[in-house]
Amino acid sequence: GMNYLIFGAGAIGTYFGTSLLAAGDKVTFIDIEPVVKALKGQAIFVEVEGHLLQSDDFLIYSSVEEALDQAQYDVAIFALKSFDTKSAMEGLKPWMDKLPPFLCLQNGVENEDVLKTYLGPDRVIYGTVTTAIGKSGPGAIKVEKLRGVGVETNHPLSTKIINSFEKAGLKPIGYAQPSSMKWSKM
Hints:
Helix content is 32%, strand content 30%. The chain has 7 helices and 12 strands. It has helices at 11-22, 33-39, 64-70, 85-92, 111-119, 158-167, 178-184; strands at residues 3-7, 26-30, 44-48, 51-55, 59-61, 75-78, 102-104, 124-129, 132-137, 140-145, 149-152, 172-175. The strands form 2 sheets. Strands 5-2-1-6-7-8-11-12 form an 8-stranded mixed beta sheet, with helices on both faces. α1 links the parallel β1 and β2 (26-30). α4 (85-92) runs parallel beside α5. The longest helix has 12 residues, at 11-22. The mean pLDDT is 94.
C-alpha cells in the first residue's frame, strides 16, 4: 500500500484517510493542536451508503517536522480550506525538500497554482472532489452523495494514486486536462 500524509483532518481529509486506511494504506494526518487533541487515541468514522468505515490505525500530529521524522510518504493530500493555503505553505518552507508531491483536493480552481509557487510544478497533482461530504464532529463524517474524485493523469504518481483510490472505493476518474477537470466541478 501507499503511505499518505494528509494535511487537514476535516471532512475531506477524514473521508479520504479513513477510506484509504480501510483499504490497507497508511495514513498520517497533520492538523492544528485542538483537532489533534480531539482525535488522538480516538477512532475516526465515515458512513458511506449505509456502511460504516472505522479506524484507529492512524497517526496525527500538529507538527509537520514530527510527522516527517516518523516516516517517508509517497504523496501528501492537501485538504485544507483554500484561505489557509498560502499561510500553510509559508509554514512548510523549512521542510520543502522533505515533502512528497501534493495532491490538491481543495475546492476552488487556483489552489494548485499557489502550491506550485512553493513546491514547483512537478510536485503538484491536480485533483477535485465531487462527492458531497458532511462532518458532524471531529472524526465523524457522513458521505451525503457518493460521486467520486478526479485526479490528473500527467504526474508519475497518478496511476498509483488512482489505483489506491479505486481500491478504497473513492471512485476515481483520471483526467488528462487538469484545468478542465477543475472547472467542470463549477
